[in-house]
From TrEMBL:
Gene name for this UniProt entry: Ubp1_0
Any one of the GO CC terms: nucleus
Organism domain of life: Eukaryota
Identification of the protein by name: Ubp1_0 protein
Taxonomic lineage: Eukaryota, Metazoa, Ecdysozoa, Arthropoda, Hexapoda
Organism: Fopius arisanus
Domain SAM: 1-31
Annotated signal peptide: none
Family annotation (InterPro entries): SAM_3, TF_CP2-like
Amino acid sequence: HFSGADIMRMSKEDLIQICGLADGIRMFNILRAKAIAPRLTLYVSLDGNSYNAIYLLSNTSKELMQKLCKMPGFYEMIANGNTNGALENGSIYSSWSIHSKYSGSGSNIFNDSTKNFIFLAGPSGVHVNVTDEVLNNEVRDGSLYALEVQNAKVVMKLINKNDN
């Protein structure tokens, strides 16, 4: 019987002897594998006080939407931040596919690539649709963003923090 510490100390040859050639090499490589570093790290805030780190490995707008939707309080922010009456008639739920979160089927939330409700606050208050190209060219690693809901859109506003 081996403990986890014993297995971590084993050499490649030891693992090959125990597991066989192919499985031993595979096990050795898995045990020594390094975590993949994220390509882009964003810090987003729902309330302006605390921030959540968003680590993007593939720099796609779909991945950003998935990570934002996993943030605690994100759905509540959407529901509470909507002030134009869309909440009462249910259009925010159908446009965001939030109903699927509560019905137990999350399969249709990200299937339609034409649905993107994440926007970046651009110059003069313009809302720029966050696409893969925008993520790769406009969003900088380590940036701080405040999330706001405006007209059933999530707007990411860049926050300039002075580090003194």
